[in-house]
Amino acid sequence: MSDDDLHAGPHGFWTRYVWSQDHKVIAIQYGLTAIAIGLVALVLSNLMRLQLGFPGAFAFIDPASYYQYVTMHGMIMVVYLLTALFLGGFGNYLIPLMVGARDMVFPFLNMLSYWIYLLAVLVLVASFFVPGGPTGAGWTLYPPQAILPGTPGTEWGIVLMLVSLVIFIVAATMGGLNYVTTVLQARTHGMTLLRMPLTVWGIFVASILALFAFPALFVSGVMMLCDKLLGTSFFMPAIVSMGQPLAHAGGSPVLFQHLFWFFGHPEVYIVALPAFGIISDLISTHARKNIFGYRMMVWAIVAIGGLSFVVWAHHMYVSGMNPYFGYFFATTTLIIAVPTAIKVYNWTLTLWRGDIHLTVPMLFAIGFISTFVIGGLTGLFLGNVSVDIPLSDTYFVVAHFHMVMGVSPVLAVFGGLYHWYPKITGRLLDERLGKLHFWVTFLGTYAIYMPMHYLGFLGMPRRYYAYEGYEFIPASAQDLNAFITVAALVVGVVQLVFLFNLAWSLRHGRHAGANPWGATTLEWQTPDTPPRHGNWGAALPEVHRWAYDYSVPGAARDFIPQNVPQEAGVGAEGPAWEGHA
Amino acid sequence: MTLLDALTAKPWLPQPPHPGRDAPRAPAANVGLRMLLGVIAMLFALFAVALLVRARLPDWQALPCPGRRRCG
Amino acid sequence: MALAIALVVIVVATVVFHFASPWWFTPIASNWGLLDDTILITLAITGAVFVAVNLFIAVAIVRFRHRAGHRAAFEPENRRLEGRLTLLTTAGIVAMLAPGLYVYSQMIAAPADAAQVEVLGQQWQWRFRFAGTDGRLGRTDVRHVSADNPFGLNADDPHGRDDVLVASPELHLPLDRPVTLLLRSHDVLHNFYVPQFRVKMDLVPGLVSRFWLTPTRAGRFEILCAELCGLAHYNMRGHVVVEDEAAFRAWLAAQPTFAAVR
Ligand code: HEM
Ligand SMILES: [Cu+2]
Ligand SMILES: [Cu+2]
C-alpha cells in the first residue's frame, strides 16, 4: 500500500487541516476566511442602508461611522472577499484538478500565501478596535483626505489599512505565482492551452493581472505611509488643514489617483475574469452544449486582460487631470466593450439550441448574464468621458459598479459553489433552499439597484450620509430609498439561508457521486470524491479532447469526459463537426 | 507548436495523438522565478515612474550630499 | 420556465419604471443640454440591447429547456455570426463614442469671452473670488492663508488688491454669459457640483482645475460637494444665484474687495 500512502497525504489533524499544503484544503481555508470577512462587509452594507432608508432612526450610525462603513464595506468586498475567493478559493481548488496536476507547483508557498492572507485580514479587523476606529476615507483612500483630520480613522485606521493591503499583496503575489506557473508547467499530458476549460483561462489571466496590477497599489500604499508617518510629500501639496498650515509641500494628489486606478481598473477584471470563466463552464455543462465560440472566448479573455491596463483614467474624468487624456481613455474604454459584448453573445448563443437544465447553478449563471449585461451597459455611460461627467460620483455609479462587480461576481461565486460543492464534500447542496436563495437574491438585487440608476439621473451624489434639506431632491426619493433598504435587508437575510445550507448539507445533503452534473472536465473524473491528497491516485489522467464535448453527434451519452480516448468517443474523426449551419 | 499555433488551434477537432507530450518543459521553479522577476521589475518601474513624476513638480529637492563633497 | 417569465417581467417592469419614474433629470439650467442628449442616445442604444439580450435568453429557455429525449446541438463556432455581431457592436460603440467625444471637445474649449470666477473649497465651505476692475485675478498661495486672508492672496501683487471676495457660500452669476470656473482647494479634494448645470469638476489642492458653462435659466440652485472630503462632505452646502446682468452687477458691487477687508 505504499502507493496509497503516498497519495493519502499527512495524517494528523493539524498537518492535514491546518498546516496543510494540499491545494484543496488551502482553497477551503481561503474560501471560509473570505466568506467570514465578507459577512462583515454585508452587515456593514445593511447598516448603511438603514441610515439611508431611515435617516437618523439609528442613533449609533453617525457620519463618522457611516463613512467607516462605506470604506470597510467597499474594500472588504472588492479585495478581501472577491479577489481572495476567486483566486485563493476557486483558483486553488480548481486549477490543479482541471489541468490534471497533483497539486500546485509550489505547495509550501501556497500554504504561506493563505497564512499571510489571514494575517492581512486580522490586521484589517484590528482596525475596528483601535482608537479612532477604521479609516473612513472611502475605499479609494484618496489623499490628502485619507491622512488628514476631518476624516475618521486618520490616526490608526489608515495605517492599519495600508499595512493590511501591503500584506495582502504579498499573499496575493505568492498565490498568483503559483497559479500562473501551475497552469504553464503542470498541465497533464494532452492538456493543450486550448483544451483548458474557460474557468482555468479566466483565473489564469486574472492571476497575471493581479501579479502586475497589485504592485501599483503597493507603491501607492508605501508612499502614502511615508507621507503619513515620515512626513514626506509624495501626494501632499502645501495645505492648510483646519486652519493649521502643514509641513508638506509640492506633492500631487492626482499622482496617487493614477497609481491607484492603474491597480483599480485591472482589479475589476481580476474579479470579473474568473467569474466569466466559471459562468462559461456552468452554462455549457448545464445546457449540455459546447460553449459557443470557445476560441473567441479565450481571445476575449486575453484581450480584455491586456486592455484593462490602458483604461485606468476613466475613473478620473473629473479629477482635474490633463483634460486631453479624456479622449484616449474614453476610446480605449469603449473598445474594451467589444470583446466583453462578444462574451455575452456567446453565452446566450450557447443556450440557443441547448438542452437547458435549470439546476440551481444554472439559475445563478443565467442570473449572472442578466445582471452583468446591465452593469456592462451602464459602463458605456461612465466610460464615455462627456456622458460620465454629469453622472460621476452619483448613485448611477453606485448602481453601475454594484451590478457589474458586486452582484454579478457574487452570483458567479454562488453558482460555482452550488456546482462544485458536491466535488468538495461529496454531497449536493439542498435544492429547495438553493432556489429560495437564488430567487430572493436575484430579484432582490434588481429591486435594490435598478431604481438607483434613476436616483443618479436625478443627481443624488454618492457617499452622502444624509440628504436632508436638498431642494432638488423630491421627497419621493426618500420613499424610494426606504424601499431599497427593505430590499437590501431581505437580500442580506437570505444569505443566512445559504450559510445554513452550506453547513446542513455537509451532513445531510444527497450523496452526489463522482460526477453529478455529467460534466466533461477533469475535476469530475477523479478516482475519489472528494479527491484525496495528490488528486489522481496512481496515474495522472491523460487528456484526449477539449473541455466541451457535450452532445457530440453520434455519441451514446451527451457528454464525453476529457480523459476518454478519441477512438472511444464516437465521431472522433467525423468531418461533420465543422459542418454546422 | 508555437504559442500562436497553440492559441489558434481548433480544439474540438481531433488533434495529433499526444500534443505537447514530448515537448520538454522548463522546471517550474525556473518559470516561477521569471514571473517573480517580472513582478519585481513592475514594482521598481512603478516606483521609478512615481518618483520621476514627483520630481518634475516644482518644489522637488535633490538629496543633499553627505559631507561637504560635491556629488556629480 | 419561471426564470423565463422572471426575465420578461424584469424587462417589462424596467421599461414601465423608466417611463413612469418620477425620478429623472433635474431640470437643466445651463448650456449643456448636449450632455442630456448624449445620455439619451446612450440610454436608447443600451436599453435596446438590455431588452434584446434578456428576451433572447427568455426565448432560449422556453424553446430549449430540457425535455425527455431532447438533445442539444453541437456547434463549436460560427465565424460568420460572430463576425457580424462584432461589427454590429462596433457600430453601436461608434454611435455612442462619436457624439460623446464631440461634446467633450466643446467642454474643454471655453469661449474666448468667458468671464473667470474662482471657486475656493475648504473643509467644509465654499468661497468665491471675482477679478476687480483690472479684470485680472491676483496671485495666491496657500502659505499666505490666515484668518484675515482666507483666500491666501499675495498682498504684494497689485492685481489682487481690487479682487472681489465672497466669503459667504452664495455665488451670483449673470444669465446667458459664459463663465469659466477656476477651482482651488486649500485642504482636501472637493468637487463643485450643481445638478442643474450638469458639469462638475474636482477641486484639487496644489493645482487649479477648471470647467466652463453658460447659465441659461434664472434661479437659485444648490451647490453640492461631489468628492468625499471628510465628515461633513454631505453637508458642504452652497447656492448659486443666476440673475440678469443688472441684478448681478448690483450684487457684485456690494461685495468687499481684498483692499477693503485688509
Ligand atoms: C446586498 C449587497 C450590497 C449592498 C446592500 C450594498 C450597499 C452599498 C452601499 C449602501 C454603499 C455606499 C453608497 C454610498 O454611500 O456612496 C456601497 C458602497 C460600495 N459597495 Fe456595496 N453593497 C452590497 C454589495 C457589494 C458587493 C458584493 C461589492 C463588491 C464589489 C460591493 C462594493 C462596494 C464598493 C466598492 C462601494 C464603494 C465604497 C466607497 O464609496 O468607497 N458592494 N454598497
Ligand atoms: Cu475602470
Ligand atoms: Cu465633499
Strand and helix layout:
The complex is a heterotrimer of chains A (581), B (72) and C (262).
Chain A lengths: L1 H7 L4 H6 L4 H31 L9 H37 L7 H20 L30 H29 L12 H33 L9 E2 L2 E2 L7 H34 L7 H14 L17 H27 L8 H24 L1 H7 L3 H31 L5 H28 L17 H33 L73
Antiparallel strand pairs in A: 1-2
Chain B lengths: L2 H6 L19 H28 L17
Chain C lengths: L1 H19 L12 H32 L14 H29 L7 E8 L2 E6 L27 H4 L2 E3 L3 E5 L4 E7 L4 E4 L6 E4 L5 E5 L5 E7 L12 E6 L1 H9 L4 H4 L1
Parallel strand pairs in C: 1-5, 4-10
Antiparallel strand pairs in C: 1-2, 2-3, 5-8, 6-7, 6-9, 9-10
The complex binds protoporphyrin IX containing FE and copper (II) ion (2 copies).
The number of distinct β-strands of chain C equals: 10
Mean pLDDT of chain B: 78
Number of helices of chain B: 2
Radius of gyration of chain B: 24 Å
Topology pattern of chain C, helix = H, strand = E: HHHEEHEEEEEEEEHH
Tally of DSSP β-strands of chain B = 0
User: What structural class do you assign from the helix and strand content of chain B?
Assistant: mainly alpha
> Into which percentage range does the β-strand content of chain C fall?
15-25%
Contiguous helical run count of chain C: 6
Spatial separation of the terminal alpha carbons of chain C: 77 Å
Characterize the largest beta sheet of chain B: strand count, sense, and whether it forms a barrel. Answer: none
Q: Write down the overall mean pLDDT of chain C.
A: 94
Largest interface summary: A-C, 118 and 101 residues
Tell me the fraction of residues in β-strands of chain B, as a range. under 5%
* Oligomerization category of the chains in this entry: heterotrimer
Family (chain A): Belongs to the heme-copper respiratory oxidase family.
Enzyme class (chain A): translocase
Protein name (chain A): Cytochrome c oxidase subunit 1
Domain Cytochrome oxidase subunit I profile (chain A): 13-544
